[in-house]
From TrEMBL, chain A:
Keywords: Cell membrane, Membrane, Transmembrane, Transmembrane helix, Transport. The lineage of its organism: Bacteria, Bacillati, Bacillota, Bacilli, Bacillales. GO terms for biological process: transmembrane transport. It is a multi-pass membrane protein. GO terms for cellular component: plasma membrane. It is found in: Cell membrane. InterPro entries: MetI-like, MetI-like_sf. This is Sugar ABC transporter permease. Gene3D superfamilies: MetI-like. The chain crosses the membrane at residues 24-46, 89-110, 122-143, 225-246, 282-303. Residues 85-301 form the ABC transmembrane type-1 domain. CDD domains: TM_PBP2. Its main location: membrane.
UniProtKB/TrEMBL annotation, chain B:
This is Sugar ABC transporter substrate-binding protein. InterPro entries: SBP (IPR006059). Pfam families: SBP_bac_1. It comes from Sulfoacidibacillus thermotolerans. Residues 1-22 form the signal peptide.
Length: 312, 445
């Protein structure tokens, strides 16, 4: 059993390219790298630079005036900023965990379906393929406090007496937003995990069966360890996206009620494009990137030790 | 097959991360284009022979073809100029974001844009608007109704031409009040009580709908109660005065509209269109809204209450006309515009008699051109126009470039109090604190 696992992991062999081949490879990569550098690395560095300046918009573009860490100082002392950090972290943790668990369950189920596999995949992909702004508008109609379908259904089932304003109180607005997010992005997790599941050769399960493992044991000893790469991948992508959540709160709540659903991206947008405080807005963007990096590292190391523990 | 699926999943994953990284680069790295305008001196531009194509950015205003009607009439008068319409978001904040990004990035279009009356200070400060007094003769400004040009002025320069004015009105269901033998309310308490009576009799589902969502519109609504209660957002020195007993009276009353069931619980998610929909579907007895709500309520394809609606000035706490927030839209010129003469010809015509009459007669918007506003032909178009002389106006504290922060501090906290998340007292305390940060040296968050 273990031997099989080791063989599978050792299967990744370094390709043996000659030096000149490698140089040609780099040369061919160069144009793409240049474009990526121009459209991603430069703006990121420029944002960092801006975050250490007092930026004024003038007729001739941005005017920068170095002000050391003043933008960050203001952030650290702002309750509005900390509130949106709290909200964003909480939102990301809850949605990513739920999506991973739910996604894994669905992927396992779909993997065992023989006849309607493709159809169920297509159906599941619809939420994910829809543009978020449009699906968010749809959820807005569902949650609407006056003519929303959710209230109608709950009322006709006599579960509630009078219409509930789902997006009008902080707790329910946060939950409503999470539901919309989970509905939309769980299929993404499913697709990634399903890819991982299909990479696991059937023989391993046969071997496990021969060794007398029941289904539960073969899930823990075969499926999960071999799936950890896919889970880590899906988790990372979801964390990155959840920390940048913008379109959902923008359409559904506008950050309200009050600032209950004001994510870091919404706050950054307001500071940058409503208040035109570019230095401060850049500081929010940079601090968000650092936060996401930190959370990703924590996730990876926690995940590694967790799965290792199961593996042993 | 398996391999294909895996690579598809990878491709999809790469795409999404690419989008994320692109999205992360919030700041544009555009190189600004040098401009040809000098803002301090005055050199009037003759636009009589202007020609070429200009782009006009404007939100859909009334949804009834106003923009294209105006463009068609203008092009007929000035055949050498073509105007391209660039449609903007109806949400004033989204509109501002897209304009400030484009113009701040150095774009030469739109040439002329329709912008909120609260933008002059902020846009002047960020140099997103051309000071029009430097390129238009002094005589140009005499056409406008009193006070409007002052509203578009920042530090001695006029940054926009008033296009149409707007203000808050009370719309009510004549038929329901008659049925219940109730008078048109003149105080807030009376409005609340009559609304409850109509609801109790089962004549209507909701009493009063207005704008309570977390956005600029809530600042407008709140300010009407606030001014009426004798309070203010900022004092004459520009310092926040929102944590006051007057403000508490205003906010307590607004919250009580929701807790008493006069306003729906969804009130704290309502913008203009949501509240107007509820009213036009016949589900509310009273509506606070802007001028255009009259035309909408009388349009049979949108409204089920055609002919059943009356309009009057907003009530007050002590009787008599309450305060109405001044809103409306101005025409601004992009400082990077490459065809200033055509821009000015367009603005000159849009604020002139023909365009302003089209605005008022065909689309019931309040004209800014004084001669048009007072003409009997226009006065008879809408009952709204006849109220203007009876109204008390209050403008927002928008003479500071920090106005967006002031307003955000106000509407997020007031909205939180309306939703019941925090008490009105706490909301005003928070607002006061955030405003102090905004007007302080740091500029706040």
């Amino acid at each position: 059993m273990n031997a099989i696992l080791q063989e599978q992991q050792g299967g990744k062999r370094r390709s043996q390219l000659g030096k000149s081949d490698r140089r040609a490879g780099y040369l061919m990569l160069f144009p793409a790298l240049l474009i990526i550098g121009a459209i991603t690395i430069f703006p990121i560095l420029y944002s960092m630079y801006m975050s250490f300046n007092h930026v004024t918009l003038t007729e001739n573009g941005f005017q920068l005036q170095f002000n050391a860490g003043k933008n960050y100082d203001i952030l650290i002392h702002s309750s509005v900023y900390w509130h949106s950090v709290e909200f964003t972290v909480m939102y990301a943790v809850v949605t990513v965990v739920v999506e991973l668990v739910l996604g894994l369950l669905i992927a396992l189920a779909v993997n065992n379906v023989q006849r309607l596999k493709n159809l169920s995949l297509v159906v599941m992909l619809i939420p994910w393929a829809l543009i978020t702004v449009i699906s968010a508008q749809m959820w807005d109609y569902i949650y609407n406090g006056v003519y929303g379908i959710l209230n109608y259904l709950l009322q006709s089932m006599h579960l509630i007496q009078s219409p509930v304003t789902w997006l009008g109180t902080s707790t329910s607005a946060i939950i409503a937003m999470m539901v919309a997010d989970i509905w939309k992005t769980t299929p993404f997790v499913v697709i990634i995990l399903l890819g991982g599941l299909q990479m696991i050769p059937e023989e391993y399960y046969e071997a496990a069966y021969m060794d007398g493992a029941n289904r539960w044991q073969s899930f823990w000893k075969v499926t999960l360890p071999l799936l950890r790469g896919s889970i880590a991948l899906a988790g990372l992508f979801r964390i990155l996206q959840a920390f940048g959540v913008f379109d959902l709160p923008f359409v559904l709540t506008g950050g309200g009620p009050g600032d209950a659903t004001q994510s870091l991206a919404i706050l950054g947008y307001e500071i940058l494009f409503q208040n035109l405080q570019f230095g401060r807005g850049s500081a929010i963007a940079v601090s968000t990137v650092l936060l996401v990096l930190f959370v990703c590292l924590v996730f990876l190391s926690a995940f590694r030790s967790l799965v290792k523990g199961e593996d042993a | 097959m398996k391999k294909l699926q895996k690579s598809a999943a990878m491709a999809v994953a790469m795409l999404s991360v690419g989008g994320l990284i692109a999205g992360c680069g919030t700041n544009q790295a555009t190189t600004p284009t040098p401009t040809t305008t000098s803002s301090s001196q005055t050199h009037t531009i003759n636009f009589a022979n202007a020609s070429g194509t200009i782009v006009w950015a404007a939100p859909p205003i009334t949804h009834t073809g106003l923009r294209n009607a105006l463009i068609a009439a203008f092009e007929k008068k000035y055949p050498k100029i073509k105007v391209q319409l660039q449609s903007q978001s109806n949400n004033t904040d989204t509109n501002r974001a897209s304009l400030s990004t484009a113009i701040g990035g150095g774009s030469s279009t739109p040439d002329v844009y329709m912008g909120d009356v609260i933008w002059p200070a902020q846009f002047a400060h960020a140099q997103l608007a051309l000071p029009l007094n430097t390129v238009l003769p002094a005589s140009f400004w005499s056409r406008f109704s009193k006070g409007l040009v002052q509203g578009a002025t920042y530090k001695g320069n006029v940054y926009a031409a008033p296009f149409f004015a707007d203000s808050g009105f009370l719309y009510y269901r004549k038929d329901l009040l008659e049925k219940a033998h109730l008078p048109v309310p003149t105080t807030w308490a009376q409005l609340k009580q009559e609304a409850q009576e109509l609801q109790k009799k089962g004549l209507v589902q909701y009493g009063f709908v207005w704008q309570g969502a977390s956005y600029e519109g809530l600042t407008c609504d709140f300010q009407e109660y606030l001014a009426d209660a004798g309070g203010s957002v900022l004092n004459a020195q520009g310092q926040p005065t929102i944590d006051s007993p007057q403000a508490l009276k205003a906010l307590d009353f607004m919250r009580s509209l929701i807790t008493s069931g006069v306003s729906p619980t969804a009130e704290d998610t309502f913008q203009e269109s949501e509240s107007m929909n509820v009213f036009d579907q016949g589900k509310a007895a009273f509506l606070r809204n802007w001028t255009y709500a009259w035309a909408n309520s009388q349009n049979p394809s949108d409204s089920q209450v055609v002919g059943k609606v009356g309009v009057t000035v907003l009530p007050s706490f002590n009787g008599g006309a309450g305060y109405s927030t001044i809103g409306g839209w101005d025409l601004y010129v992009n400082p990077h515009s490459k065809n200033l003469p055509a821009d000015l010809a367009f603005i000159n015509w849009m604020t002139g008699k023909q365009a302003q009459t089209i605005l008022a007669v065909q689309f019931t918007e309040l004209p800014t051109n004084a001669a048009v506003a007072s003409s009997p032909e226009v006065q008879n178009v809408s009952p709204v126009f006849k109220l203007v002389n009876k109204m008390h106006f209050i403008s927002r504290p928008d003479q500071t470039p920090n106005y967006p922060q002031i307003s955000q501090a106000l509407y997020t906290n007031v909205n939180a109090a309306l939703s019941g998340t925090i008490s009105p007292k706490k909301a005003l305390k928070n607002a006061q604190q955030q405003m102090q940060q905004a007007v302080g040296s740091g500029g706040g968050l």
